[in-house]
Structure formats: structure tokens, C-alpha cells
Amino acid sequence: MESAAATAVPATVLDSHLHLDPDSAEYKAIERRIVRKQDWRIMPLICLAYLLNYLDRTNLGNARTLNSDKPGESLVEALDLRGLRYNIVVAVFFIPYVLFEFPSNIALKYFTPSKWIARIMVSWGIVTICSAAVTNYAGLIAVRIALGIAEAGFFPGVIFYLTYWYKTDERATRMSIFAASVAVAGAFGGLIATGVSYMSGMAGLHGWQWLFILEGIPAVLCGILVYFALPDFPETAKFLTPEERAFAAHRMGPFAPKGTDKHFDKADAIACVKSWQFWAFAVTYFCYANSLNAFGYFAPTIISSLGFKGADAQLLTVPPNAFAFFIIIGNAWHSDRSKERPLHILAGSTLVMTGYLILAVVRHWGVRYMGVFFIACTNAAVIPFLALRTATVTGSTSTAIATGGVIAFSNSAGAVAPFLFPSSDSPTYLMGNWTCFALVGLAALVVCFLWFRLGSSSEYKNTFVGVAGEGAGEAEKDDGGVGPVKERDGWERADSFDDDGEWEAVTSKKPSRPSTPSSASLSASAPSRTIPGLPTAANGQPLTKKQRENAAKKSKEQAARDAKEQEQEERLRQYRREQEKAKLAADQAARVRARPKSQNFFGSEPQPAANKVVGGGMHASLNPASDSLIWD
After folding, report:
1. In this structure, are 192 and 320 located in the same domain?
2. Do 408 and 501 sit in the same domain of this protein?
3. What is the total count of domains within the chain?
4. How far apart (Å, rounded) are the C-alpha atoms in residues 222 and 207?
5. From CA 334, how far away is CA 329, in angstroms rounded?
6. DSSP characters for 170-184?
7. What sections of 79-206 are H helices per DSSP?
8. How many CB atoms lie within 10 A of CB 355?
9. Domain for residue 462, yes or no?
10. Same domain assignment for residues 478 and 450
11. 344 CB-contact burial (10 Å; exposed 0-12 / middle 13-18 / buried 19+)
């Protein structure tokens, strides 16, 4: 009996885990264990990858000031980057970067994350190494365009990738750890550049050439590692057991993107791009991206304007990045813990605006250096903002478009930011500082509007077919206190919380409205020229070929919408059934735990106290499933 009981337990582990009450201690313990395994497998790889990505993308800023105190050895003098040439070199990177970034997330889903991210890394590593061979301004332009093509899609791809693995109230923390690699990269970049400055002249190469070589090789090696080590989706993760894979996929709920979703859904993509949310988030992120690019490319230049040159200017970029590392992670962690987004976005925005204000109006170098600390924290606002965006869409296609499209649009700021800090404005750079101050302020105003429309919760917002709260034909109305109600194609939906604080969604089919006949159809005088076998219009006239094609197209689109509605309804029903099973399982477990140990039937032989002989030789045993007696 002991061996039979021992073999029976693993067979039911998978099912019992899926139907545990999400609020139970056992469920939370299993979830913490699996999330911890995910963290240790995923986060080190993507953080290392982003550190190398940012080093390779922004090493141009360090190369510009490298060995600037030695005549003829700096990048500016060697390649004749006079006037606005440096600014143009920075800007041309973003033209292919933006164009190729938009569809990259769709390719990531099709080719799988490990292969696509590895391809990006190996490509940009090779291009960075080749940058050391540049001998003139035109060659540098060509290399920067190639680098934009190679790197396109990495950042939005990783943000999209994390939505497969982490719930909405877990994303900001992981995104912040990922993005904080930028701060580490900034600190390391300054230290590496300082060391490389002493290599100038070795093997006949300038210091900036050694910088490109030494920062490009690790990207190629890391790309190969990512290809073999990065897991693709929870459903296929080999580092998890089959039971853990099922739990990892199930815990994400019905609205998170899944590895089993279609690679591309045209209707979802169109609805996402046409929605007002897409453009509101895109404009807001564009404003933040100007600040990100200004600091990434011009931090060494701004510090140089304080009176520091050469290695000293490189070293002084390290403390602001180290400070930003803790602020970014701390703000995102508290945002996840409190399940709140807008206030944390606004807090980060206020800090950044303060930094630009100090740089614009203060002349003392020490206070201005403190302003550099503040503008280094732009990602403290950006990360909760991106986490909020991922909670306004559902499904793989909509999430891919929402992240890839918004980030691609915002990165067009990279073509603008370089011209905000022309060398002619040194040392105050008033135009750049005031412009970034105004843009971050505009972003804060849009965040306030999003707060008003979407609320402050980190959870999914009004999620329905394909796009959360998005799509053509939706009309928002007051529901009398239940929550936002969306109308779409004859369906009504209300989001609310039940008495236990659990999210619930109610969907119902609205009664169809009676159609109003047109005046033409009521006219008896209009002659009828109906041709047998052809569809007719309301006035009795046969449809033209174009009208028939339009009708067939609309019918096909309606059928597709109906199919998606049915699929979503089934997912919602399945989710509710699983929640009910979880509650029943939790109640059953509570009853079992409340019994005396002598009556515990799980994993052991029945105890004597649970099997009694009753008068007349009849035996009675306790049924653990119903707490009733079984007579034999």
C-alpha cells in the first residue's frame, strides 16, 4: 500500500497545482519557486545582453572624448568630425533602427526569442568590430547605418519576451533590472574608456579603435550563448519540469501572450495601431526617449562642459549611472509591490525635470553635476510606463505591435536629440536642456490623462477580444459604478471585483436592435429588376460586382470577429472553471488539515482510528472526499 500511495501522488501533482487557490500559501510557494527559477535563467542573460548592447550603441560618445587631450588621436580629429558631423553620425543610426524595429517583434515570435535575439547580438558585434577600420567621415556614416539595421528590435524584443514569462505585477521589476543594465553599462563604459585611453598607439591603432574592437567581441560571444541558453516560452522551457511548465503557463491567466498564439493576427494588428492608446503611449515615450538619448550620447560631453577633460570626464560618468541604477530598480519594485503605475511614472518624471532645470539655470559646476545624477534616472519613469503599456493589450500580436511599434516610434527621437546639443551651445547647452525639460513635462501631462482614462492599477485594462480596451467600434459609457463597459460588435463587457477582491469579467450578448427599413425599400413605385440567382440590394436592384465583393469581404471579417469572440469567451469560461476548482480544492485541503492526524488518508495507510468495526460485524471507513462514512 505504501508503494501504491507513493506512486499515486506524482500523478496528481500537475492537476492539483493547477487547481490550487491562488491565495493559498501552497500556491504562492510554488509560484515563488518557479518565478525564482525563471529569474535565474532569464535575467542574467538578458541583462548581460543589454549591457553589451548599450555599450556598443553609445560607445560613440566615449570615443568622441577619448584622448581628446592628445592632439591628433581623438575620433573627432582623426575622422574630421567638425561642425554638425558628429550629430549627423548619431542621427543616421536611428533611421534604419526605427524602420526595422517595428516588424522585429513579429519575427521574434516566428523564429523564437532565442534565435532572433542571438541573431541581433552577433550582427551588431560584428559591425562594432568593423567600426575600428573606418578611416573617414563617410565610412563612419555607413557603419552607423549598418549598426542601426543590426541592433533593430533588441530592446522592444526583450520587453515583449518578458510578457510571456511574468505577470503584470511582476514586469516592472524585471524590466527595471533589465533597463538598469544601461546604468551599469554607462559606469562600465566610462571605466573601459578610461583604461583603453592608455592603449592609444598600441599596434598602430588609436584608443577609439581599440574601444570598438574590445566592446564588439563580447557581443558576438554572448550572442552564441543566448542561442543555446535562453528559453523561448514557458510551454517549452527545458529547465522546468513538465508540472512546472504547466504551472508557469497557467499562472499567467487568460490574457497574457502565449507561445501557442498565432504568429500574426492581421485584425489585432490593425485594431491596435488604430486605437488612441497606441498613439498616446507612442507620443509619451517619444518625449522620454529624447531625454534617454540626450544622456546616453551627451553625458560625457555635458560633464566635459563642467571643466573636465580626457580620463577625468570619462570617470565622472560613473557616479551618476551608479545612482540611477538604484533609483530605477527601487521605483519599479515599489510600483509592482503597490500594483500602481501613474504615480511612480510621475515621480520619475519630476526627478528628471529637476535635473534639466538645474542644468539650464545653475552655473556652479557642483550643482550642475548633481543635475546630471537626476537626468540619468530617466528610466525610473520609463519602466513603469512600459509596464503600464503591456497591461493595455492582450495576445501575442497586439502585445508585439504595442511594444515594438511604440518603441520604434519613440526611437525616432534619436534623430532629433543629437541636434539639441550642438557644440556651439557649449558649455550651457540651453536649447537642449530646456527642450528636454519641456518634453518630459509634456510626457507627464499625457500620463495624467492616461491615469484618468485607464486608472492606476497595474493589472490588465478592460481586456476583450485581441486588444485590451482597443479596437474599432468601441463605445465607452458609464455603467453605474460597476466599471468601464465596452461595446463592440453587439457584445457587452464589464470589469469589476468580487467580494473577495478577485477580478471577474461579465460578458453577455446584447439584444439586437430592430433594423429601420430605408425609404427605398418601402417605396412601391420603384420598379424591380431582380435577376434570379444574384443578391439584391434593399431597393430590389441587383448588386454590382464591387458591391458583392464588399459584402463578401464584410461577411468574412464578421466571421473572423465572431470566431475570436467565441475563442475569448471560451478562455474566460475556462479561467472561471479553473478558479472554481481551485476554491473547491482549497476548501478540501482545509478540511483535510482540520482532521486529526490519525484520520489523514493522503500518502499513507488508513489509520486504525479511521476504520472502525460497528455492531453486527459491519465496517465503516471515512471517505476523504466527502467527510462521509462508507459502509461495507
Report:
1. yes
2. no
3. 2
4. 24
5. 9
6. HHHHHHHHHHTHHHH
7. 85-92, 94-101, 104-111, 113-130, 137-151, 154-165, 168-179, 181-196
8. 27
9. no
10. no
11. buried
| Same domain, residue pair 447 and 493 | no
| Run of H or E residues at 442 | helix 430-454
Query: CA 322, CA 334: separation in Å to the nearest integer?
Result: 19
Taking the C-alpha atoms of residue 148 and residue 57, their distance in angstroms, rounded to an integer, is 9
- Residue 520 belongs to some domain of the structure: no
pLDDT > 50? residue 230? yes
Asked, for residue 335, whether it belongs to a domain, the answer is yes
Q: Can you give the pTM of this predicted structure?
A: 0.69
Boundaries of domain holding 478: 473-510
Q: Is residue 225 part of a domain?
A: yes
Task: Give yes or no: residues 433 and 495 share one domain.
Answer: no
pLDDT at position 328 is 92
Question: CATH number of the domain that 428 lies in?
Answer: 1.20.1250.20
The per-residue pLDDT for range 235-266, each reduced to its tens digit, is 999 999 988 998 998 888 888 888 888 888 88
Any residues with CB less than 8 A from the CB of 570 and at least 6 apart, and which? none
350 pLDDT above the threshold of 90: yes
The CA-atom distances, in angstroms, between 505 and each of 460, 494, 508 are: 12, 6, 10
Grid coordinates belonging to 153: 528590435
Rounded to the nearest integer, the mean pLDDT of the chain is: 76
Q: How far apart are the first and last CA of the chain?
A: 20
CA–CA distance, 303 with 544 (Å, rounded to integer): 70
Statement to judge: residues 419 and 478 lie in one domain: no
